[in-house]
Protein backbone atom coordinates (compact mmCIF):
# COMPACT_ATOMS: atom_id res chain seq x y z
CA UNK A 1 0.00 0.00 0.00
CA UNK A 2 1.10 3.58 -0.48
CA UNK A 3 2.40 5.92 2.15
CA UNK A 4 0.03 8.11 4.08
CA UNK A 5 0.08 11.28 6.07
CA UNK A 6 -2.62 11.75 8.66
CA UNK A 7 -4.68 14.72 9.60
CA UNK A 8 -4.82 15.82 13.23
CA UNK A 9 -6.88 12.76 14.21
CA UNK A 10 -4.87 9.54 13.76
CA UNK A 11 -6.45 6.61 11.99
CA UNK A 12 -7.38 3.90 14.49
CA UNK A 13 -6.97 0.50 12.87
CA UNK A 14 -6.77 -2.93 14.49
CA UNK A 15 -5.86 -6.12 12.66
CA UNK A 16 -8.48 -8.70 13.65
CA UNK A 17 -7.31 -11.57 11.40
CA UNK A 18 -4.40 -12.48 9.14
CA UNK A 19 -3.61 -15.16 6.57
CA UNK A 20 -7.13 -15.02 5.06
CA UNK A 21 -8.50 -16.36 8.36
CA UNK A 22 -12.32 -16.50 8.42
CA UNK A 23 -12.64 -15.43 4.77
CA UNK A 24 -15.61 -17.06 3.05
CA UNK A 25 -15.30 -18.71 -0.39
CA UNK A 26 -17.47 -15.94 -1.92
CA UNK A 27 -15.10 -13.28 -0.52
CA UNK A 28 -12.08 -15.07 -2.02
CA UNK A 29 -13.93 -15.25 -5.35
CA UNK A 30 -14.78 -11.54 -5.21
CA UNK A 31 -11.11 -10.67 -4.73
CA UNK A 32 -10.30 -12.72 -7.85
CA UNK A 33 -13.09 -11.29 -10.01
CA UNK A 34 -12.66 -7.65 -8.90
CA UNK A 35 -8.88 -7.49 -9.05
CA UNK A 36 -9.06 -4.59 -11.56
CA UNK A 37 -12.26 -2.90 -10.32
CA UNK A 38 -11.41 0.81 -10.31
CA UNK A 39 -14.72 1.96 -8.78
CA UNK A 40 -13.32 3.18 -5.45
CA UNK A 41 -16.62 4.68 -4.30
CA UNK A 42 -20.34 4.17 -4.71
CA UNK A 43 -20.91 7.23 -6.91
CA UNK A 44 -18.57 8.97 -9.32
CA UNK A 45 -19.49 12.60 -8.69
CA UNK A 46 -17.01 14.29 -11.03
CA UNK A 47 -14.31 13.26 -13.50
CA UNK A 48 -11.91 15.56 -15.34
CA UNK A 49 -8.63 15.02 -17.17
CA UNK A 50 -6.79 15.35 -13.85
CA UNK A 51 -9.04 13.84 -11.14
CA UNK A 52 -11.98 11.71 -10.09
CA UNK A 53 -14.24 12.54 -7.15
CA UNK A 54 -16.25 9.76 -5.48
CA UNK A 55 -18.89 9.65 -2.75
CA UNK A 56 -19.73 6.68 -0.56
CA UNK A 57 -22.58 6.48 1.98
CA UNK A 58 -22.72 3.06 3.65
CA UNK A 59 -25.72 2.20 5.81
CA UNK A 60 -25.05 -0.06 8.81
CA UNK A 61 -24.15 -3.51 7.46
CA UNK A 62 -23.65 -2.23 3.90
CA UNK A 63 -20.34 -2.67 2.09
CA UNK A 64 -18.51 -1.45 -0.95
CA UNK A 65 -17.21 -4.35 -3.05
CA UNK A 66 -13.57 -5.21 -3.57
CA UNK A 67 -11.86 -2.45 -5.52
CA UNK A 68 -8.35 -1.48 -6.55
CA UNK A 69 -6.61 1.82 -5.83
CA UNK A 70 -3.77 2.60 -8.26
CA UNK A 71 -3.97 6.40 -8.31
CA UNK A 72 -2.70 8.72 -5.60
CA UNK A 73 -5.77 9.64 -3.57
CA UNK A 74 -7.17 11.27 -0.46
CA UNK A 75 -10.29 10.42 1.46
CA UNK A 76 -12.18 12.46 4.00
CA UNK A 77 -14.65 10.94 6.45
CA UNK A 78 -17.90 12.92 6.44
CA UNK A 79 -19.22 11.04 9.49
CA UNK A 80 -17.92 9.17 12.51
CA UNK A 81 -18.04 5.41 12.16
CA UNK A 82 -16.46 1.99 12.20
CA UNK A 83 -15.71 -0.37 9.32
CA UNK A 84 -14.17 -3.76 8.58
CA UNK A 85 -11.75 -4.02 5.68
CA UNK A 86 -10.38 -7.13 4.01
CA UNK A 87 -7.16 -6.56 2.03
CA UNK A 88 -5.41 -8.59 -0.64
CA UNK A 89 -2.57 -9.44 1.74
CA UNK A 90 -5.04 -11.64 3.66
CA UNK A 91 -5.53 -9.24 6.57
CA UNK A 92 -8.83 -8.14 8.04
CA UNK A 93 -8.93 -4.99 10.12
CA UNK A 94 -11.42 -2.85 11.95
CA UNK A 95 -11.05 0.88 11.44
CA UNK A 96 -12.55 3.73 13.43
CA UNK A 97 -13.19 6.99 11.57
CA UNK A 98 -13.71 10.49 12.93
CA UNK A 99 -15.74 13.09 11.06
CA UNK A 100 -13.38 15.39 9.14
CA UNK A 101 -10.50 12.91 9.25
CA UNK A 102 -8.45 12.91 6.05
CA UNK A 103 -5.80 10.48 4.79
CA UNK A 104 -3.60 10.62 1.70
CA UNK A 105 -2.04 7.66 -0.12
CA UNK A 106 0.58 7.65 -2.89
CA UNK A 107 1.45 4.73 -5.13
CA UNK A 108 4.69 4.16 -7.01
CA UNK A 109 4.70 2.51 -10.43
CA UNK A 110 2.85 -0.81 -10.36
CA UNK A 111 1.78 -0.52 -6.71
CA UNK A 112 -1.86 -0.73 -5.60
CA UNK A 113 -4.23 -1.41 -2.72
CA UNK A 114 -7.01 -4.00 -3.23
CA UNK A 115 -9.69 -4.14 -0.52
CA UNK A 116 -13.36 -3.98 0.40
CA UNK A 117 -15.06 -1.97 3.16
CA UNK A 118 -18.11 -2.79 5.31
CA UNK A 119 -19.85 -0.45 7.74
CA UNK A 120 -19.94 -2.31 11.07
CA UNK A 121 -21.21 0.69 13.01
CA UNK A 122 -24.72 1.81 13.95
CA UNK A 123 -24.90 4.93 11.76
CA UNK A 124 -24.30 5.81 8.09
CA UNK A 125 -20.59 5.95 7.25
CA UNK A 126 -19.77 8.51 4.55
CA UNK A 127 -16.63 9.45 2.62
CA UNK A 128 -15.42 11.61 -0.22
CA UNK A 129 -12.48 10.23 -2.20
CA UNK A 130 -10.42 12.32 -4.62
CA UNK A 131 -8.12 10.44 -7.01
CA UNK A 132 -5.36 12.26 -8.91
CA UNK A 133 -4.71 11.02 -12.44
CA UNK A 134 -1.18 12.46 -12.81
CA UNK A 135 0.66 9.87 -10.68
CA UNK A 136 2.88 6.91 -11.51
CA UNK A 137 0.02 4.64 -12.65
CA UNK A 138 -2.56 4.90 -15.40
CA UNK A 139 -6.20 5.18 -14.27
CA UNK A 140 -8.19 1.95 -14.40
CA UNK A 141 -11.14 1.71 -16.76
CA UNK A 142 -14.49 2.23 -15.06
CA UNK A 143 -16.83 -0.37 -16.54
CA UNK A 144 -20.51 0.31 -16.07
CA UNK A 145 -20.06 3.92 -14.91
CA UNK A 146 -21.83 6.65 -16.88
CA UNK A 147 -19.32 8.79 -18.73
CA UNK A 148 -16.50 6.25 -18.63
Question: Brief description of this entry?
Answer:
This protein is mainly β. The protein has one helix at residues 25-33; strands at residues 3-6, 12-17, 43-47, 51-58, 63-69, 72-77, 81-86, 92-97, 102-106, 113-119, 125-132.
Mean pLDDT: 92
Order of secondary-structure elements: EEHEEEEEEEEE
- What structural class results from the helix and strand content? mainly beta
Q: What percent of the residues sit in helical stretches (DSSP H or I)? A: under 10%
Gyration radius from CA atoms, angstroms:
15 Å
State the separation between the terminal residues, measured CA to CA. 26 Å
- Contiguous runs where pLDDT drops below 50 for at least 5 residues: 1-8
Q: Using the alpha-carbon principal axes, give the shape.
A: globular
Record the strand order, biggest sheet.
1-9-6-11-4-3
Largest sheet, strands/sense/barrel? 6 strands, antiparallel
Secondary structure tally, helices: 1
User: How many E strands?
Assistant: 11
How much strand?
Answer: over 45%
Polypeptide structure, described:
This protein is mainly beta and 148 residues long. Helices cover 6% and strands 46% of the residues. The chain is built from 1 helix and 11 strands. Strands 1-9-6-11-4-3 form a 6-stranded antiparallel β-sheet, with no helix packed on it. Strand 3 (43-47) and strand 4 (51-58) form a beta hairpin. The chain is globular and about 40 Å long.
Amino acid sequence: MGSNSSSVTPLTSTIVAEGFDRWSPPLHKEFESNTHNGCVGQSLVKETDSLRVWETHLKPGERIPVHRHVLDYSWTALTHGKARQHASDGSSREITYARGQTEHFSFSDGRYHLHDLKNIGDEVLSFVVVELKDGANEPLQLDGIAGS
